[in-house]
Design goal:
Oligomer: single chain
Largest sheet: 5 strands, mixed
Strand order of the largest sheet: 6-5-7-8-9
Shape: globular
Helix content: 25-40%
Strand content: 25-35%
C-alpha cells in the first residue's frame, strides 16, 4: 500500500487585476494537496504549482512544441524562472495544504532562455478564432452541428483554451442557430459565416468537418473564412468515444494555432502596398467601405486612384501579410479575391 496519497488539483487562469508586468507572465493557481503531513504537502504544492505556472505561460508565448520543451525541464531548472510567488489565501490541516497562489514569471529571463535555445517566441496576437465543429458518422452523411448527439461539438464545448491565442467554439445561441445551419457551414456560406463571426466578435471562423476514418480515428477537414484549408487525421479507436474527440480537440487546436501564429510572426515591419478594385451599387456603399477600410488597424494609408460608374480603384499601404488584412476585412463584412494584377473587394454583408 502506498504510504501516502497525493491529490493535486490545479486550476489556471489569468489574473483580472492590474499588474505592472505583462499579464501573460502572471498566473493564478489553486492547489489542494494531501500527504503525510502539511509541511510535505505544502512543499509539493509549491513545486508542482511552479511547473504548472511556467507551463501555462509557455503556452501563451510559444508554440505547442516550444511549450513542451520548456515543460520538460527539471524542477530545479524551472524554479529559476519564478520572479514572485504570493499566497492570496491558504488553509491547512495535519495532512492537507490548500491555497490560492499568484505566481509571476521572470519575463526577461524566460525570453532570454528561449532565445538561447531557439525556442520560438510568439508575438502577441489579438486573433479571436471561432470554430464550428461539424460531425458525420460517415463522410457522405449529412453533417451535424446543433444536434445534441454531435460528439465533436460536445468535446469542444467542454474543453478549455490552452492556446497562445483565443480559440472558442460557436455558442448554441438562438441568434447563431437562426443564422447558420450545418449545410451552410459545410458549403462555406460566406454571408452566414460572416454574420455569426461578427455576432461573436471573432476575427476569423474555422469550420471543422469531422468524420470517422473507418474504425481507427477521425479525419478532419479544416477550412477558414479567410481562405485557409488543410486536413488532419487523429489516431485512436472509434470505440474510445469521448477520449478520441478530446484528443482531436487538442490536435486541431494546435493546427489552428500554428496557422494563425505563423501569420502573426510573418508580419513584416515594413509597409506593403495593395491595389484593390471595389464594385459598388451606390455612392453610400462606397463611402461606408472607405470608412471601414481606413479604420483597419493594419492600414496606414488609403489612396483613391480612379473612380468610374459603380467602381473604385484604390491603393492601401499596410503592415503585415495579406492574410492579416483579409481577416480584418472579413470582420468588417468584406472579402478579398484575387483578380490577377490587383485584388477585388467583395461585400459579404455587414
Amino acid at each position: 500500500m502506498f504510504r501516502f496519497i497525493v491529490i493535486f488539483i490545479l486550476t489556471l487562469f489569468l489574473s483580472t487585476a492590474t499588474f505592472a508586468a505583462d499579464e501573460r507572465f502572471v498566473v493564478e493557481i489553486k492547489v489542494d494537496v494531501t500527504d503525510e503531513n502539511a509541511s510535505i504537502a505544502r512543499e509539493k504544492a509549491l513545486s508542482n504549482a511552479t511547473k504548472a505556472a511556467i507551463t501555462a505561460v509557455a503556452r501563451r508565448i510559444s508554440t505547442q512544441e516550444g511549450a513542451n520543451r520548456i515543460a520538460s525541464m527539471s524542477d530545479a531548472q524551472l524554479i529559476n524562472f519564478i520572479k514572485e510567488t504570493s499566497i492570496l489565501n491558504e488553509k491547512n490541516s495535519d495532512i492537507r495544504y490548500m491555497a490560492d497562489l499568484r505566481i509571476i514569471i521572470n519575463e526577461d529571463l524566460l525570453k532570454e532562455y528561449m532565445k538561447e535555445r531557439e525556442i520560438p517566441l510568439v508575438t502577441h496576437s489579438d486573433a479571436s478564432i471561432m470554430v464550428i465543429p461539424l460531425f458525420r458518422e460517415f463522410s457522405e452523411d449529412t453533417p451535424l452541428l446543433w444536434e445534441v448527439d454531435n460528439p465533436w461539438k460536445q468535446a469542444w464545448d467542454s474543453s478549455s483554451n490552452t492556446s497562445a491565442i483565443k480559440i472558442f467554439p460557436i455558442q448554441s445561441s438562438s441568434g447563431n442557430m437562426a443564422a447558420l445551419d450545418a449545410l451552410k457551414a459545410a458549403s462555406g456560406d460566406a454571408e452566414a459565416l460572416s454574420k455569426v463571426m461578427r455576432m461573436s466578435s471573432a476575427s476569423d471562423v474555422y469550420v471543422l468537418d469531422a468524420a470517422y476514418d473507418g474504425v481507427e480515428g477521425l479525419k478532419i477537414d479544416i477550412t477558414s473564412l479567410s481562405g485557409k484549408h488543410l486536413s488532419t487525421k487523429v489516431s485512436g479507436a472509434k470505440s474510445s468515444g469521448a477520449e478520441l474527440f478530446n484528443k482531436a480537440v487538442l490536435q486541431t487546436r494546435q493546427k489552428i494555432e500554428e496557422l494563425v501564429l505563423a501569420d502573426t510572426q510573418a508580419q513584416a515591419l515594413n509597409e506593403l502596398e495593395l491595389t484593390i478594385l471595389y464594385p459598388f451599387s451606390s455612392l453610400g456603399q462606397w463611402i461606408t467601405a472607405e470608412q471601414k477600410i481606413k479604420s483597419l488597424p493594419a492600414v496606414s494609408a488609403m489612396e483613391v486612384q480612379a473612380m468610374a460608374q459603380g467602381k473604385a480603384q484604390f491603393k492601401i499601404r499596410y503592415q503585415g501579410d495579406i492574410s492579416n488584412i483579409q481577416r480584418q476585412l472579413i470582420s468588417k463584412g468584406y472579402r478579398l479575391e484575387n483578380g490577377g494584377n490587383y485584388m477585388i473587394l467583395q461585400n459579404i454583408g455587414g
